[in-house]
Amino acid sequence: MRHGGQILVDALRAHGVGRVFSVPGESFLAVLDALHDTGIQNVVCRHEGGAAMMAEATSKLTGRPGICFVTRGPGATNASAGVHVAQQDSTPMILFIGQIAREDRDRDAFQEVDYRQMFGGLAKWVAQIDQTDRIPEYVARAFDLAQSGRPGPVVLALPEDMLAARADIPDLPPAPRPVAGIAPAQLDAIRDALAGAERPLVIPGGALWSQDDADRLAAFAEGWGLPVAVPFRRQDYMDNRHPNYAGDLGVGMNTRMGEALRQADCILSLGSRMGDTLTGGYTLMHPSAQGRRIIHVSAAPDEIGRLWRADPGIPTCPRAALQALADSPAPRRWDDWTASLRAHYEDWQTPRPTPGDVTMEHVVCWLSANLPEDAIITNGAGNYAAFVHRYFRFKRARTQIAPTSGSMGYGLPAGIAASLAHPGRVVVTMAGDGCFQMTLNELSTAAQHGATPIVIVANNGRYGTIRMHQEKTYPGRVSGTDLANPDFAALARAYGGHGARVTRNEDFAEAFGRARDSGRFAVIELALDPEALTSFATLSEIRAKASE
C-alpha cells in the first residue's frame, strides 16, 4: 500500500522524470514526502510563475514534458503565466496543482478554484484526480496528450486527501511513442507542389526540434537549392551560417525578409502555424486572401486549414516528412532566389550603430563570435531581444530558449533551467531592466541549486518596447514607461553571485570573462544610452517621425 503522493512520484519516475520544479504548499505534502528519497531532484523556486517557466524551458531543452508542482489558489494563478507560454509555444508540460479536500468542494473553501474552468482555454487537457488508485492512469494520459499532435500543457489537480489516501495499484509503464512516417503519395504531393513554384520558401516550425532535424533541414535545403526562413524565436532550427538560411520571420524582422514572404508563390510549412507574428500581423499574407500555394505538414490534423487553405495538407509528423525530403532528389533548383535572400540576410547582419559608450549591437556581435557553438541563449521579451534576433548567429539546435508568446520575465527562469540541464555548457540570459525585475528573485533559486547562467541586463531605465509604441502613437507624452532600477551588480552579489557593471564597449569582453571564471551565476549590467531604443532607430528619430 502506497499513499497517493508516492504513487504519483513513482509514476513520474517510470516516465523518466529526473527533475521537477516547485513552490511547496501544504496541499501536496504527500508528494513532497515521496520526493524525499526517490532520486528525483526537486528544484524549489521563489515564485510559481518562475517554476512553471523553468519546467517549460526544460521541455524545450530536452524534448520531454517539463514537470511543475504548485499549490492551490494563488499558487495556480501565479503558475498560469508559464502555462500560457507552453500553450502558445506548443511545448509539452504537466502542471500539478494541490487542491482542497474532496469533501469541501463547492463550499467556497479556502483557496478553492475550479481548475477546469480556469485553465480550460490555456491547456490541452485539465482534469482532477479524485481516486488514488487512478493516479497512474491519469499521469500516463497526461504524458501522452502533452506530446501528441500539437504538443502543449496539461493540468492535473490533486485533492490533498486523495494524495494522503493509500491504495494498492501497480505502476503503468510509458506507452511507446507513435511511429512517425510519411506515405509515398504524400511525399509525391509535396514534390509536385514545389516543382511548380518559382519563389518557394521553407518554414520549419513546431516545438521539438533536434540537432538531427537541423542537419536534415540543412541537407534538404542545400540539396534542393531552397531558402529557409524560420519563425519567431526558432532561429536555432538551422545553422545561421549556412548559405541557404535566409533569416527569421517575426517581431522586428528584416523588412526585406518580410517582402520575400510577400513575394513567395509557394510555402512549405514543416510544422509552422504561420500566425500573426510570422506574417507581420497578417499584413504580409492574409488568411482571407493568402495569394500563394501553401503546403502544410502538421502532426495535428486540426491545425491544417485552421488559418490557411492547404494544397496539399499533409497530416503527418513534419520531422518524418523532412527526413524523407532530405533523402529525395530535387525536381528542380532555386539557387538564384536563395542567393538573393541570403544576400539580404548578410546585409541585415551588418551592425547599425546606436548611441552610447556601450551598445547592444557590439555586445551581441561579440557573443556571437566568441561563445562556444553549443552555448545556450535565453531571453524574455523587450526591444533588447531584437538585437539578439538580428545579430546573433545560432549554430546548433536547442540553443535558443525564448518564448514565442512574448512573455516578460522568462529569460532568467529559462537560464536556470538550461544551466541545470546542461551544467557543462555556457548559458547566457539576455534581459532588459524591466524584464529581469519580473523574476529576478529566482537568483536565489540559482544560488541554492548551483545554476550558473550569466545574465546580461540591458539597462535603459524604461520599458523599452512600450516606450517605442508610445512614442510612435503619442510622441513626447511619456506615461507609465520609466523605471527606477536597483544596482543590478550589487543585487547579484547580495544573492551570492558575481556582479559587474559595464559602461564601455571595450570593457565588455573582460567583464564577461570574469563572470564566466567566477563559477557562480553572474549579472552584467549594461549602462545603455536612453536614446538607444531599438536596433533600427533612436528614441528621438521615432518621436520625430511620429510628429511629422
Descriptive account of the structure:
The protein is α/β, with parallel strands linked by helices and 548 residues long. It has 3 domains: 2-167, Thiamin diphosphate (ThDP)-binding fold, Pyr/PP domains (Rossmann fold, 3-Layer(aba) Sandwich), CATH 3.40.50; 184-347, Rossmann fold, CATH 3.40.50; 351-547, Thiamin diphosphate (ThDP)-binding fold, Pyr/PP domains (Rossmann fold, 3-Layer(aba) Sandwich). The strands form 5 sheets. A 6-stranded parallel sheet has the order 3-2-4-5-7-6, sandwiched between helices. Helix 1 runs parallel beside helix 6 and helix 3 (48-62) packs parallel to helix 4. It is globular, with a radius of gyration of 24 Å.
Radius of gyration: 24 Å
Under CATH, the topology of the largest domain can be stated as: Rossmann fold
Question: Strand sequence of the main sheet, in spatial order?
Answer: 3-2-4-5-7-6
What sort of overall outline do the alpha carbons produce when their principal axes are compared?
globular
Number of domains: 3
CATH class (first level) name of the largest domain:
Alpha Beta
Strand content: 15-25%
Beta strand count: 20
Structural class designation: alpha/beta
Count of helical stretches: 21
The helix fraction, in percent, is 25-40%
CATH architecture name of the largest domain: 3-Layer(aba) Sandwich
Mean pLDDT: 95
Largest sheet: 6 strands, parallel
